[in-house]
């Protein structure tokens, strides 16, 4: 392998950069970046950097192997929402390890996202069928955050005026902790209740959470509690195990309004906590309350069915401070895996897996009773709570010595969970830890014993997963071909450049990805004993220290599993800091008008009031307006949120004056780290006056976007905010990030969030080294300025900073083009598909514009190919203006063009077939053919269909 990974990662070599610099009129790369980045914030590399010199790919993999080897080999039987699982090899190889799936972006351009959109509608159908509810979203971040979102849905939709939300005493402990942290910030009062108690005695509430089965394993009929809450105007959220729902009555059948949970055990490794696809489903009438992503069915320009994101008016960049959720993404890659697990196994296969799991749990219960232990609950699915007075520590230790992790509830009680990987030999060894015999003759039949531990009234009697997609792909050949067909319908980084501004679609190197599939990384429970996760904890320590250094902060928490959750964690830390000082009245958050919409939504969910600050004509924060807003809210000022470089893609030269004014008024400064790719190695957020920031490891630090997730959004802070960073009641150690001193509370279900993808960013930093990170920033800034310079004569560049320079992205203003030619930003975006490109970011942060970010990973040939495509499209638009083509029939408004549209029927357009699909000769051998024509977005919202359409719809 190469000993110079940075040269592999950065697409432009010295000769290419020389050409680009010549075009811009600069002698050296540092001269260019030095001019763009304000001199007042330049940061020299530290003399005693904690980031080691760059390692080769071989060296980095060897170090990762050593770290992974420090994770213990004990098998987890802890449960609590996390289970070992068999990932079918055909799914691991063709989805998880396939760049066609993991390097794709969020499907904002649905015409080139039909493969993953179909996979997501399979996911939604799987969830709705199993939960018995009408509509499910395209995945949530994890189970506990999904339950929080369910609580917020209940509050919005409830007719009760109560501020109380009831929580099942048998709910997962991590979910209880997350509910408590999130509820406090938005004024919700939690009451813990026993579901089996007298339903009439339940207090009035706007909603209730019921865990089904319970964390203890108990399975009870919650129908009376559900009816009692609903009679008083409350809504019911059921956190349900999908595998159990193949055997148990569905939440919908029980009368629930909302169901939430995780799909982790559907073939997605535990990975020390993530990433996994949570789910959220609602009954009919609540679909427009769903947060996050929803995939629906519409029609394209030919009238054929096509998939797209539905109800996009709910997106936070539109609703902003009126948003009721800050969730702006999904866990697409993991949702695809879970849906394909259901596709591969089908309803019969899933039921068989569930029956085997339930049968083995029942067999273990019989053996434990024989050994003299007390199995607490008579009815259960896969989890046993076992009472061994005074012996719990001894039993757990003995089982661990024999290679198994059990859960210690207290000194008298042990928890054990069975999953699809559990064998009868495993059960025999575990039973010995309770005093069972060393020798035993046994066979195993799934159904006989489990029937003795099942409530017959809760047995599922309706069909599910009846759609052909779940009943067709049984052989590996069929499954492999189905996955290939879907992948071929999509456009990902393995096909070409994705120049999305603010999204940083850079290389996700294969070496960085390698560790994700290793068993010692993948098959680790997030609540495993500290001695069994030493490698993970060491990796976390190293990555946190590296991120702290490059950002200029003192502490980092890797727990947030999305950028939006990192925002929320940072703002909750600010809230906690002010409250600890008695400044509870400080609740105003100042946010520039150009900010990403999740900023405002996160502030609301942190219990803050949003006050918008104006921007000037150059796209910078209006200092006069900022000072006026500070003066007007001086005693209530909690925070300012800014993005640096700005959302407009420029380095604000007054940033120190901005942060200084906020600090002088007693506020804290939140610097959104979305654009760190333009700063790394040249300046640091902590030196700009930032008190706290979130970072996007799925952007700057090379974790792939996975078609719209996974992501990691760590939060970094100065020392005075460190005690308020996320904590977790089940973390392996209390010293992480600031500890439990002030109990910052969790923001995700697992202590370290999506830990199994942290090795990607670890490997990126380890192989780049500090110098490589700085070189990547320089290359990204050079590429963006090169694109801006070459296109400025064709499309105005909307904002620029010192010397007419931009940061790592530039905004092309297409509004004059529409005025002169009638061609819209949508037309240009769709026409780029015909040229073999994913469009840049559309209409953000300014309507009618394209935000272009070439990143450091693209080579000059690909950058030039994009520039030439944009120039050619401008020429096509000019032909429309000149009358060569009609305004309503030209290659731009007709884009994208499918193969069938050019070969079937008579060609009646005033432009040729070749002009439609081969606008440049280089496409003849490399053409990407979109599977559908332009999709009618409004039709899909008017005719909301969010589950698998019948096969004849595609006939």
Automatic annotation (TrEMBL):
Its EC number is 1.4.4.2. Its cofactor is pyridoxal 5'-phosphate. The glycine cleavage system is composed of four proteins: P, T, L and H. The modification N6-(pyridoxal phosphate)lysine is found at residue 699. Keywords: Oxidoreductase, Pyridoxal phosphate. GO terms for molecular function: glycine binding; glycine dehydrogenase (decarboxylating) activity; pyridoxal phosphate binding. This is Glycine dehydrogenase (decarboxylating). Residues 776-897 form the Glycine dehydrogenase C-terminal domain. GO terms for biological process: glycine decarboxylation via glycine cleavage system. The keyword Ribonucleoprotein does not apply. It comes from the Bacteria. Belongs to the GcvP family. GO terms for cellular component: cytosol; glycine cleavage complex. Pfam families: GcvP2_C, GDC-P. It catalyses: N(6)-[(R)-lipoyl]-L-lysyl-[glycine-cleavage complex H protein] + glycine + H(+) = N(6)-[(R)-S(8)-aminomethyldihydrolipoyl]-L-lysyl-[glycine-cleavage complex H protein] + CO2.
């Amino acid at each position: 392998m190469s000993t110079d990974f940075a040269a592999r990662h950065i697409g432009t070599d010295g000769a290419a950069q020389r050409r680009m610099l010549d075009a811009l009129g600069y002698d050296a790369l540092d001269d260019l970046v030095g001019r763009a980045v304000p001199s007042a914030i330049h940061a020299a590399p530290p003399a005693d950097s904690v980031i080691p010199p760059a390692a080769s790919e071989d060296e980095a993999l060897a170090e990762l192997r050593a770290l992974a080897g420090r994770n213990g080999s004990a098998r987890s039987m802890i449960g609590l929402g996390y289970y070992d699982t068999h990932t079918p090899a055909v799914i691991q190889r063709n989805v998880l390890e396939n760049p066609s799936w993991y390097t794709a972006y969020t499907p904002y351009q649905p015409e080139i996202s039909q493969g993953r959109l179909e996979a997501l509608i399979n996911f939604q159908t799987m969830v709705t069928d199993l939960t018995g509810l009408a509509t499910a979203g395209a995945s949530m971040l994890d189970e506990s955050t999904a339950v929080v979102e369910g609580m917020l849905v209940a509050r919005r939709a409830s007719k009760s005026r109560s501020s109380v939300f009831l929580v099942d005493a048998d709910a997962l402990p991590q979910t209880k902790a997350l509910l408590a942290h999130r509820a406090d910030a938005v004024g919700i009062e939690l009451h813990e209740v026993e579901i089996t108690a007298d339903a009439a005695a339940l207090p009035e509430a706007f909603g209730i959470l019921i865990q089904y089965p319970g964390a203890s394993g108990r399975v009870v009929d919650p129908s009376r509690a559900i009816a009692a809450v609903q009679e008083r105007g409350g809504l019911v959220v059921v956190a349900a195990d999908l595998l159990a729902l193949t055997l148990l009555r569905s939440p919908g059948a029980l009368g629930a309004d909302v169901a939430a949970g995780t799909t982790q055990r559907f073939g997605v490794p535990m990975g020390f906590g993530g990433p996994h696809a949570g789910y959220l489903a609602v009954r009919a009438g609540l679909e427009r309350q769903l947060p996050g992503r929803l995939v629906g069915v519409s029609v394209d320009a030919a009238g054929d069915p096509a998939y797209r994101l539905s109800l996009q008016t709910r997106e936070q960049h539109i609703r902003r401070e009126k948003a009721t959720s800050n969730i702006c993404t999904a866990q697409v890659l993991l949702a695809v895996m879970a849906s394909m697990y259901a596709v591969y196994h089908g309803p019969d296969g899933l039921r068989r897996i569930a029956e085997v799991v339930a049968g083995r749990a029942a067999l273990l219960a019989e053996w434990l009773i024989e050994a003299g232990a007390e199995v607490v609950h008579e009815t259960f699915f896969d989890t046993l709570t076992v009472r061994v007075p005074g012996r719990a520590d001894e039993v757990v230790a003995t089982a661990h010595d024999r290679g198994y992790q059990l859960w210690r509830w207290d000194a008298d009680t042990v928890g054990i969970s069975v999953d699809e990987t559990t064998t009868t030999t495993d059960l025999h060894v575990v039973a010995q830890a309770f005093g069972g015999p060393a020798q035993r003759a046994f066979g195993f039949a799934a159904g006989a014993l489990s029937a003795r531990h099942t409530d017959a009234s809760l047995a599922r009697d309706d069909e599910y997963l009846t759609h052909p997609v779940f009943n067709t792909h049984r052989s590996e050949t069929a499954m492999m071909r189905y996955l290939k067909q879907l992948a071929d319908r999509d456009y990902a980084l393995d096909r070409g450049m994705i120049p999305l501004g603010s999204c940083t679609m850079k290389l996700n190197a294969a070496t960085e990805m390698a560790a994700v599939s290793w068993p010692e990384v993948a098959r680790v429970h997030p609540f495993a004993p500290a001695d069994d996760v030493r490698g993970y904890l060491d990796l976390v320590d190293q990555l946190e220290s590296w991120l702290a250094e490059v950002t200029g902060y003192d502490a980092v928490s890797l727990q947030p599993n999305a950028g939006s959750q990192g925002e929320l964690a940072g703002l909750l830390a600010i809230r906690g800091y002010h409250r600890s000082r008695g400044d509870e009245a400080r609740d105003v958050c100042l946010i520039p008008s150009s900010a990403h919409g999740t900023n405002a939504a996160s502030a609301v969910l942190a219990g803050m009031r949003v006050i918008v600050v104006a921007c000037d004509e150059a796209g910078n924060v209006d200092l006069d307006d900022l000072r006026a807003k500070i003066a007007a809210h001086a005693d209530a000022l909690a925070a300012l949120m800014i993005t640096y470089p700005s959302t407009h893609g420029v380095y604000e030269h007054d940033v120190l004056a901005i942060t200084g004014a906020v600090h002088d008024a007693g506020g804290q400064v939140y610097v959104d780290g979305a654009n760190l790719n333009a700063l790394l190695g040249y300046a640091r957020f902590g030196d700009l006056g930032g008190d706290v920031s979130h970072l996007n490891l799925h952007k700057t630090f090379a974790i792939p976007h996975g078609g719209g997730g996974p992501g990691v959004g760590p939060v970094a802070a100065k020392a005075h905010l460190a005690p308020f960073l996320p904590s977790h009641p089940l973390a392996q150690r209390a010293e992480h990030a600031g500890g439990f001193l002030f109990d910052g509370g969790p923001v995700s279900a697992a202590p370290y969030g999506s830990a199994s993808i942290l090795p990607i960013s670890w490997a990126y930093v380890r192989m780049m080294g500090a110098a490589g990170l700085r070189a990547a920033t320089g290359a990204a800034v050079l590429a963006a300025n090169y694109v801006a310079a070459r296109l400025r004569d064709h499309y105005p560049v909307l904002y620029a900073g010192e010397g007419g320079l931009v940061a790592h992205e530039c905004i092309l203003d297409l509004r004059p083009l529409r005025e002169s030619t009638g061609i819209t930003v949508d037309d240009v975006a769709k026409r780029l598909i015909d040229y073999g490109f994913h469009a840049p970011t559309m209409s953000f942060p300014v309507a009618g514009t394209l935000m272009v970010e070439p990143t450091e990973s693209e080579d000059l040939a690909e950058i030039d190919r994009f520039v030439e495509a944009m120039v050619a499209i401008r020429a096509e638009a000019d032909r429309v203006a000149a009358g060569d083509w009609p305004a309503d029939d030209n290659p731009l408004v007709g884009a994208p063009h499918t193969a069938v549209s050019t070969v079937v029927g008579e060609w009646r357009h005033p432009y040729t077939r070749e002009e439609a699909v081969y606008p440049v000769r280089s496409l003849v051998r490399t053409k990407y053919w979109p599977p559908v024509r332009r999709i009618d977005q409004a039709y899909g919202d008017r005719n909301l269909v969010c589950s698998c359409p019948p096969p004849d719809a595609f006939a």
